[in-house]
Amino acid sequence: MYRYDEFDAKFVAERVAQFRGQVERRLAGAITEDEFKPLRLMNGLYLQLHAYMLRIAVPYGTLSSKQLRKLAHIARVYDKGFGHFTTRTNLQFNWIKLVDVPDILSELASVEMHCIQTSGNCIRNVTADQFAGATPEEIEDPRPLAEIIRQWSSLHPEFVFLARKFKIAVGATEHDRAALLYHDMAVDIVRNAEGQVGYKVVAGGGMGRTPYIAQTMSEFVEREDILAYLEAVLRVYNQDSRRDNKHKQRIKILINAIGVEEMRRRVDREFAEIKRTGSLQLPAEELARITAYFAPPQFEALPDNMPFGDKAFEDWKKTNVARHRAPGYAIATISLKTVGQIPGDASADQMDMIADLVDEYSLGEVRVSHEQNLVLPHVRQRDLPAIFSRLQALDLAAPNSGLITDIIACPGLDYCDLANARSIPIAQDIAKKFADIGRQQEIGELKIKISGCINACGHHHAGHIGILGVDKKGVEFYQLQLGGSGAEDASIGDIMGPGFGEHEIANAVERVVNHYLAVRKDGERFLDTYRRVGMEPFKNVAYQEQMYAAHTG
Amino acid sequence: MPLIRVEGGKAVVADDGFVSVADDAALPASGGAIVSLKRFQAERETLLGRNAPTGVRLTAAENPEALGDDVHRLSVVTLEFPAFNDGRAFSWARILRTRMGYKGEVRAAGHYIYDQLNYQRRVGFDAWATDRYGVADFEKAFAEMSNVYQPSTDGKKTIRELRSAK
Amino acid sequence: MAKVQDPQMLTANRLRDGEVLYWAKGGWVLGLKDGEVFADPKAADAALAESQRDVKNNTVVATYLFDVRVADGVIKPVKEREIIRAKGPTVRGEGKQASHV
Q1: A46, β-bridge pairs
Q2: Range A6-109: architecture per CATH
Q3: Which residues of A touch C (CB under 8 A)?
């Protein structure tokens, strides 16, 4: 993985000193809260419902064991002993004190971490496939390019006061695990007809109030041109997006307003100019230099020989173990969705013990997925039983990756200042209802995503079943959406209709799932059945109780 | 309003030499005048015919490309910040310096904060109309981040360049 | 007929550590139950205005009024959000419920 050199280290150190100065000026009243707010946001610091929340960047979801241990330490010393992994593969702490933040940033800097641009109207954390560098599916590891984009976007002087946030993802596989098409901009590493590797660039995807699927900006950008091209997109966005209505200032709105053809025309014009100046060309040597940091570890020469075990282990293997590019190895997903627990949360103790696993079994590296789980990317197949056993001791051995209890949920009204409804208890209710493993396996792949408000941090638009919490006259209600997908077959879920109360929603979900089981054809996932039969039958069963009550009441 | 300029790499208090003239006000009899884009386009001949330097101030919504080649006949282009979080002028400054090759003064006016001064400088601003910040503030702001990743119009060596120099 | 304004309370976050505070007679307390309830909207507005002193002196941020109801001497916020803000997260119990305010 990437290692800071003296220049990167100084960059982060000076950033910490800069923020320390900003905090001092704020406490002394030299700047107002209005002026301080964008500054603290650009260092990942929110003021939430109960306290300050600090969001730590985990670039392309990659962490070393040392970094994970530091996060555990910060959780213990500066917070209440736990952290939350987010849908952008970052880590959030909920109980941070403003006065501690400069010291926290200092501690993070000591392990090559930071909170730069994890919030604010700027370019955010660059994300990628959690299986990067390990999966046999990829054309190449997307993380070197993600790192290059990260550096290019860090405190970019022209783009620190954009109209809104700007999220970038990088992909390199046909099966998209990084939700590229829901990003403001994404780079897909592709091969052209000549077999040459280059970059397909899409833009204008997004969640929130008005979800959009990204559209193609360029089918193929040459390697050396990529930064010039990305800069062109950002410049057009910065200069042409609206500034008058906070809800209409993402790039998705701009592209929808002017049309993708016009957007391409503007970008191409800017791209030609930037390329002409030459200053952003990416030399092959630079790409090679960064790529070298991500060189695959030394794998032992082992035969493929997947071990067998008891039912618990076999269940876990079925869902949480994926194929690795190296024979004899595997990718293991650590589910942070143990039934009844808070999705995406890990305690400081769990983080430390996972760090031990990372050192003992995963060649020092762990990943965060946008589905709020962790991944051990390089484990030997023969170590899987031992790993599983250790995860069981940690209560992190749920055999549910991709299944119905592998729920994405935002922190919601329990923590978030923006929320309208709680999301975590709903996730827990649904998970408990479907706790039976046999039933989960029978249902198969079913991605439930829950957001506590229209900002959609829980990615509900991309849920096979999406749930949006709303406030209806002071009472929490939950709207269902069906048929969303964040993968390469991206689609926005269809809204079913009026919301369900907090004690009804899990039952409504169950009725929907039962109907799927009743009508599905061979091999169909829930998503496939929904796409075949449409909303009507699901809507009928979901509202069945209301209709019954209305009829008999 | 006091003017701070960057001259010889340092922030200095400068004599303005210009007045910013409203659309319906008379042009000064002598001395530099900065007018709106609209007025410049309407009274171009008069303005450029004056025996005094001319400047144009652009709102955050106005792309400097609207000036075309006339930009090279301007001594000052003022870019307004209606609110500090309206970052369009950062792109306008860069376009002025790169695509348009403008060599005159690019001036920041309106609402911006200390923490933007360095970014402004990097994208090509070299003057600031400000009654809030003094030379010491500018020098401090410019010195906060010595290493940068992106090439920009200030010619500062990027981290990548520093690495290859080693 | 005009909607009757519920009684109100005033809240803010402490600047230095983000702690949720409630206004009580010219100062701030940690617990909702110790906060001042304003039956009269004019008194509520006056308290909000007075509290800006503590915004200006950089003690608190994000001051606002919110509705409560009082029954049998127990104050209960009208909105779920304020109930959770006063007690702490419903899913863990690590907030104010843990410090017993």
Answers
A1: A53
A2: Alpha-Beta Complex (3.90)
A3: 26-29, 33, 47-52, 80, 95-99, 342, 413-415, 419, 421-422, 424-425, 428, 471, 474-476
Neighbours of chain B (3+ CB pairs under 8 A): A
Contacts of B96 (CB under 8 A, 6+ apart): B64, B71, B77, B102, B106, B124
pLDDT in tens, A170-180: 999 999 999 99
Q: Using the structure block, give the residue that is written with the tokens 């809204």.
A: A495
Chain A partners of B141 at a C-beta cutoff of 8 Å? none
Closest to A508 measured CA to CA, from A479, A485, A473, A528: A479
Alpha carbons within 13 A on the beta-carbon side of A51? 25
CA neighbor of B92 nearest in space, from B113, B72, B106, B74: B106
Q: Going by C-beta distance under 8 Å and a sequence separation of 6 or more, which residues neighbour residue A298?
A: none
The listed CATH number (3.30.1490, 3.40.50, 3.20.20, 3.30.1340) that belongs to domain B3-165? 3.20.20
CA distance A343 to A452: 14
CATH class of A142-290: alpha beta
d(CA C32, CA C22): 6
- Indicate the pTM of the whole model: 0.96
CB neighbours of residue A532 within 10 Å: 11
Q: What confidence tens digit (pLDDT) does each residue in A517-534 have?
A: 999 999 999 999 999 999
ipTM value of the model? Answer: 0.97
Chain B residues with CB under 8 Å of A156 CB are 149-150
pLDDT, mean over chain A = 96
Chain A residue numbers touching B90 (CB-CB < 8 A): 157-161, 238
Q: How far apart are CA A523 and CA A378, in angstroms?
A: 30
Q: Tell me the CATH number for domain A311-394.
A: 3.90.480.20
CATH class for domain A408-552? alpha beta
User: Can you tell me which residue has the tokens 């090439």?
Assistant: B151
Strand order in the sheet with B127-129: B10-14, B3-7, B127-129, B105-110, B76-81, B54-58, B32-36, B18-20
Q: Which alpha helices (H) appear in A79-210, and where do they start and end?
A: 101-109, 143-153
Q: What is the pLDDT of residues A320-343, one digit of tens each?
A: 999 999 999 999 999 999 999 999
Q: What are phi and psi of A59, to 5 degrees?
A: -55, 130
Residues 6+ apart with CB under 8 A from B52: B28, B30, B31, B32, B33
